[in-house]
Amino acid sequence: MSGLTLQNIVKQFGTFTAVRNVELTVPHGTFVCLLGPSGCGKTTLMRMVAGLDLPTSGAIRLDGKDITNVPTHKRDLGMVFQSLALFPHLTVGENIAYSLRIRGIGKEAQKKRVDELLAMIHLAGYADRPVAKLSGGQRQRVAIARALAISPKLFLLDEPLSALDAKLREAMQVELRQLQQRLGITTIVVTHDQREAMTMADTVVVMNGGEIRQAAPPVEIYRRPADTFVADFIGMTNLIDFSADGTGASVLGASIPGLAIPAGLESGIISVRPEDVHLTAPGNAPISGTVTFVRDLGGTIETFVEAAGKQVVAVSMPNARPDVAVGQTVGLKLNPADCVVLKS
Ligand SMILES: Nc1ncnc2c1ncn2[C@@H]1O[C@H](COP(=O)(O)OP(=O)(O)OP(=O)(O)O)[C@@H](O)[C@H]1O
Fold first, then answer.
1. Are 219 and 255 within one domain?
2. Buried-most residue among 38, 83, 213, 231 (CB within 10 A)?
3. How many CB atoms lie within 10 A of CB 113?
């Protein structure tokens, strides 16, 4: 298969298991984000893909070839790691040309490639600038260009945008994704920022405790989280207890017929996105509650409702603004198809 395959990767540091039984396929030309809280094993996994660490067991294949024991410099990688800063005493052009120069590529070819890359990162004409005179965003673009100079098969970035302020960071996320799409390069990015992962990735790999909890396209991670950890980590969802009642489930003190509960499960948690909670008149829906807070964010309106002692959030667009006030009793409609039964 063309692309990267991780087969049953385990990494132990002494008796501590930092990465456990990771199976992952990254098809050629796709963009994967490794996402998870601090200490979940993202960097450890990335370092093994880069050849900076050896797995305790398991195999890594690139385009079908076993590269588990191949040293980093023979893996055909471009890397942007936090620890790999630009060379401060070199110019922008010299930084980008570095890996071409050590491969013995001629001066003319180096210059041509540097100009090509500078145009790609919107810094045409910057070749002779000292890197010390660049802004944070410009530096990050130069680090990206330097990693891409040799046209690697695999592009690895560990928290590449974390040092940038929020606005620049968002702009760079779009830029990085566009660049990757233009080049069609297989790319893996480590991040702990769910919004960043959802913006850029074809596949978001959510990790916790050294394990992959879910690997899926952003929309699926968002709409159909696999378990309570993923739902909670992605955030802004309603996590509601249910108990099976024969025809469906009892949720917030009311019966929701048609909710598909796996056989044998008597109770658990469902995830319902706030945009799938529909507010209606109290007699119009099985669940009723009291409005406790309304937050108008301009683009969306969030209505907080307390039902059966639990807080539920409903999100509406301004063109469907709910006519409700704090203290009012409302009905809550949940469509069984929008309720995701989570693994614990
Ligand atoms: N060389 C090492 N020796 C011992 N333990 C290590 C080593 N490297 C990482 N660990 C441990 O392995 C676990 C995973 O670390 P890792 O750096 O992969 O997490 P991470 O998800 O990248 O976190 P962060 O977002 O904070 O960088 C952590 O508990 C860490 O302390």
1. no
2. 231
3. 19
Number of domains comprising the chain: 2
Q: End of a domain among 172, 197, 230? A: 230
Look at the alpha carbons of 104, 108, 109, 115 in this order and tell me if their dihedral is positive or negative.
positive
Query: Rounded to two decimals, what is the model's pTM?
Result: 0.90
- The CA 43 to ligand 1 mean position distance, Å, reads 7
Helix (H, G, I), strand (E, B) or coil at 83: coil
231 CA from centroid of ligand 1 (Å): 23
Ligand 1 midpoint to CA 227 (Å): 23
Q: What is the DSSP letter of 40?
A: S
Residues 252 and 195 in one domain: no
Of 168, 202, 230, which residue is a domain's last? Answer: 230
Q: How far is Cα 199 from Cα 64, in angstroms, rounded to an integer?
A: 29
Considering the domain architecture, whether residues 213 and 313 belong to the same structural domain is answered as no
Are both 218 and 324 inside the same structural domain? no
Q: What atom in ligand 1 is closest to the CA of residue 53?
A: 1
Q: How far is the CA of 280 from the centre of ligand 1 (A)?
A: 48
CA–CA separation, 57 and 214 (whole Å): 21
Task: Report the candidate in 267, 337, 273 with the shortest Cα–Cα distance to residue 302.
Answer: 273
Pocket test of ligand 1: the residue of 22, 43, 53 to mutate, having most ligand atoms within 8 Å of its CB, is 43
Distance, CA of 78 to CA of 145 (rounded, Å): 9
Tell me: the pLDDT tens digits for 21-70? 999 999 999 999 999 999 999 999 999 999 999 999 999 999 999 999 99
Residues 319, 224: one domain?
no
How far, in Å, CA of 67 to CA of 59, rounded?
8
Pairing of strands 77-80, 154-158: parallel
Cβ count near 252 (within 10 Å): 22
Q: Which H helix or E strand runs over 123?
A: none
ipTM reported for the complex surpasses 0.85: yes
Look up the CATH number of the domain holding residue 301.
Answer: 2.40.50.140
Tens of pLDDT along 213-253? 999 999 999 999 999 999 999 988 999 999 988 788 899 98
Please count the residues of the chain: 344
Residue numbers of the domain that contains 126:
3-230
